[in-house]
Amino acid sequence: MKKLFSITLQNRKNLLGILENTSKETLIKIPKGYRNSIWWNIAHIVVTQQLLVYNLSNVPMLVTPEIVDKFKKGTVPDGTMEDGEKERIASLLISTVERTEEDFKKGIFTEFNEYTTSARVTLKNVEDAIAFNVFHEGLHLGAIRSLQKALAS
Fold it and tell me: Using one digit for the tens of pLDDT, what is the confidence trace for 82-124?
């Protein structure tokens, strides 16, 4: 499990760099042929990890219901970024991974509601959720890279 947390943390550091070094206009822009933005993908990654690990384990999430409602699966970006939202997501990128690792080591994830993802992967326990999250974040990092290329041309 330690390696999965390490990979996730490194990915989050990469995403933080993108978030901090990309203009707001570029972050929220949705290029022609795409359904979402760099901004939406980054925030969605934070929300999904919380839903997969905390929510499915019946443990209170570290993100607000408002953030979940705005960036969960099936949502569509509205082309905006509210004041303070970028800073909030930036702080959650790293803190949620560190806290999840601490909580995992403490053994707080004692329950789990089995869930089959849209990728048809059935998660039976929190370890499955943490492992699947690495895959999910990789997919969205790829989407972000594709968005960066589209926006640069």
Answer: 989 999 999 999 999 999 999 999 999 999 999 999 999 999 9
Q: Which residue has the tokens 């443990």?
A: 59
CATH number for the domain spanning 107: value is 1.20.120.450
Q: Supply the range of the domain harboring residue 57.
A: 2-152
Query: Does residue 14 register a pLDDT over 90?
Result: yes
User: How far is the C-alpha of 74 from the C-alpha of 35, rounded, in Å?
Assistant: 11
Q: Which amino acid is at 87?
A: E
H/E stretch holding 123 reads: strand 122-123
SS3 content of the chain, % helix, strand, coil (to 5): 65, 5, 35
Total number of domains constituting the chain:
1
- Interior angle at CA 26, CA 25 and CA 27, nearest 5: 95
Nearest to 135 by CA among 48, 37, 15: 48
Kindly report whether the global pTM for this prediction surpasses the value 0.85: yes
Backbone angles phi, psi at 41, to 5 degrees: -60, -45
